[in-house]
Amino acid sequence: MDSFAALGMGYLLGSVPFGLILTKVFNAGDLRSIGSGNIGATNVLRTGNKGLAAATLLLDLAKGLLAVSLAWRWLPEFPGMAALGAVLGHCFPVWLKFKGGKGVATTMGVSLGLAWPLGLAYAVTWLGMLAITRISSLAGMTAAVAVPLVAWAMGQVELVPVLAAIAVLVLVLHRENIARLRSGTEPKIGSKG
Description:
mainly alpha; 10 helices; globular
């Protein structure tokens, strides 16, 4: 039962659609009719408001971190379940008919909550790939795939299954981006495409 409690708590925290809330509060348009239509920071950036995009990124990260931190406190045997729940909640929020974001910032938050070196590895990989390619989707996918490998290398093998499951979810949700990357049509940050 505790594992389901951790999963449920993570899901509820992860399902808070900060991108949608912020764009509505600050009259930045209907996020679901802009760009990709998802609720994450990259799509908020397409509204032209960099401040709202940064706030969305930080809040989406924070909800993942909070979910795992609360699990460590109340359900210390199941922080991985809380992590999975938070990412699932962000990607499939019940409040938005299960149409959410792609899990990149929330995955960084749960990685940080599970073990700070994992969060650091995620951030360095994400920012490094973004600086090199200026392609947000590629940076997020690369970081998500890197984290379970880093967990394995650190000897935290108990975290590898949940982090690998999250990485697979992130990749599946980016399948259209992967197709555009293969065709050379994936837009870069700051481009008009």
